[in-house]
Amino acid sequence: MFGIGLGNLVKIGFRVSDHILKQQEIERSRTASERARLEAEASRERAEYESRRYRRTQLEDEIARDSVAVECPNCGATGNRIRRGSTGFCEFCGTAIQISSSGIAYIADPIEKAKALAAEDIKRKS
Ligand SMILES: [Zn+2]
After folding, report:
1. pLDDT confidence of residue 56
2. How many angstroms separate the alpha carbon of residue 96 from the centre of ligand 1?
3. Per-residue confidence (pLDDT) for residue 46, from 0 to 100
4. Residues 19, 61: one domain?
5. Which pLDDT belongs to residue 62?
6. What's the pLDDT band for 2 if we cut at 50, 70, 90?
7. Which residues lie near ion ligand 1 (Cβ < 5 Å)?
8. Which of 1, 23, 48, 110 has its CA 20 to 30 A from that of 7?
C-alpha cells in the first residue's frame, strides 16, 4: 500500500519542484537576453538616427552659409535664396536661376535647368 514510501514521495516532490524552478529560470534568462538584445538594437538605431540628423544639419548649415539672396532675373522677386554655383527656382514664377560662384544671378541655360529639375526630383523622393 505504501509501496513508494513517504521518503520517496518527498524526493519526487523535490524533483518536480526543482524541475519547475529550472524551467522558470531558463524562461527568465531567455526573456532577459531577448530584452537586452532589443535594447541594444534600439540604442544602435537611435545612434544611427542621431548621426544622420547631425550630418543633415551640417549640410543645411553649409547650404545656408553658401546661399545668397537673389533677385529673380525674370520677375524681379527678391525672396529667393540660392546656393552659389548652383541652380534654383524662383518661388514666385518658377524660373530656373543660376548663381555664379561669385553670386551673380542669371536665367539658367536649358542644361542647367534640366540638371536642377532632376536634382529636385531626387530630393523629393528621398
Ligand atoms: Zn521669378
Report:
1. 86
2. 8
3. 94
4. yes
5. 80
6. low
7. 72, 74-75, 77, 90, 92-93, 95
8. 23
Q: Nine-digit cell at 120? A: 529636385
Report the separation in Å between the CA atom of 20 and the middle of ligand 1, taken as the mean of its atom positions: 78
Cα(70) to centroid(ligand 1), Å: 10
- Considering only CA atoms, give the Rg of the chain: 34
Assess whether 36 and 17 both reside in one domain.
yes
What residue numbers bound the domain in which 77 lies? 71-125
**pTM, whole model, 2 decimals?**
0.51
Kindly report, residue by residue over 70-117, the tens digit of the pLDDT. Answer: 999 999 999 899 999 999 999 999 999 999 988 899 999 999 999 999
